[in-house]
Specification:
Layout: E1 7-9, H1 16-26, H2 30-34, E2 37-45, E3 48-51, H3 53-66, E4 69-80, E5 83-92, E6 98-108, E7 111-118
Parallel strand pairs: 2-7
Antiparallel strand pairs: 1-4, 2-3, 4-5, 5-6, 6-7
Length: 119
């Protein structure tokens, strides 16, 4: 396998910080979820950019209450030394009712520096 080829992994191969964030986010535990991010982290979700822990915390609180949904991890990939993609299937009361989203993580110093969520 070439080093530049994405490696598909089972979810248990995701770094602990990503697993901690995903579990906390799924449980609407904003206090734990925010600890997974660097102080200068950026989250891009649905075309909106949140920069820094205060903005990310507000986004987490909003996303926890805006819709009711279930979320299931369907795939995980490591694309390079600091980048991972976790694909989730969501079903709920949001427009469309179901969607598959790619959570694209970039890590720095053992924490999430950037998260981009898109279909």
């Amino acid at each position: 396998m070439h080093d530049n080829q994405p490696r598909t992994s089972t979810p248990d191969i995701l770094p602990d910080v990503i697993t901690r964030y995903l579990n906390a986010h799924r449980a609407h535990d904003t206090a734990t979820a925010i600890t997974a991010f660097t102080g200068e982290a950026t989250v891009i979700d649905d075309g909106n950019t949140c920069e820094g822990t205060e903005a990310i915390e507000a986004w987490l609180n909003r996303s926890a209450t805006e819709f009711t949904y279930t979320i299931h991890l369907t795939d995980a990939q490591q694309t390079d030394a600091t980048r991972y993609i976790a694909t989730h299937h969501l079903e709920g009361n949001f427009p469309g009712g179901t969607i598959d989203l790619r959570y694209q993580f970039t890590l720095r110093g053992g924490l999430i520096e950037r998260l981009v969520i898109e279909p």
